[in-house]
Write a structure and sequence with these properties.
It contains 5 helices and 2 strands. The chain has 138 residues and is mainly α. A two-stranded antiparallel ribbon has the order 1-2. The longest helix has 25 residues.
Length: 138
């Protein structure tokens, strides 16, 4: 390798003799892409090995309640997981409430009675909590 120094700049020539002679080197072969089914199967296998505790089924109600809990953390009503510290993040709380409102609008007529009641109740409670936190803060 040829090295040239000057003005505090170091230049290292990393070309090979074949490249200098104009001989093309073959490009490395791309790695084979895994299919989505392979990814999902690997995720399911890893999830089954690492989850010793039973988890609730993943359904619409669980999703809504998860978003609700995250919003209550953002409003400072519940402590952040792991830290037990209550932090206020009004923009994130507002964004999640708006997200739940979009879900309500887009799923209208497609939910069971229980799912609809839970979504309506969660949205009402979170909106009222948001208003209360904003009033206390101002």
């Amino acid at each position: 390798m040829a090295e040239r120094k000057g003005d505090g700049v170091k230049v290292v020539d990393r070309r090979t003799a074949a490249q200098d002679a104009g001989v093309a080197t073959p490009a490395p072969e791309p790695a084979p892409e895994a299919s989505v089914a392979d990814d999902e199967a690997a995720f399911a296998a890893a999830r089954d090995r690492t989850c010793d505790e039973p988890v609730p089924p993943i359904d619409f109600v669980t999703f809504v309640l998860s978003l609700s809990t995250n919003t209550m953390v953002s409003l400072g009503i519940l402590p952040a997981p792991g830290s037990q510290e209550k932090k206020l993040d009004l923009p994130l709380a507002r964004q999640t409430i708006d997200l739940l409102a979009i879900l309500q609008e887009k799923t209208k007529g497609n939910l069971t009675g229980e799912e609809e009641r839970i979504l309506d109740t969660v949205l009402y409670d979170l909106r009222m909590s948001y208003v209360q936190v904003v009033r206390e803060r101002c």
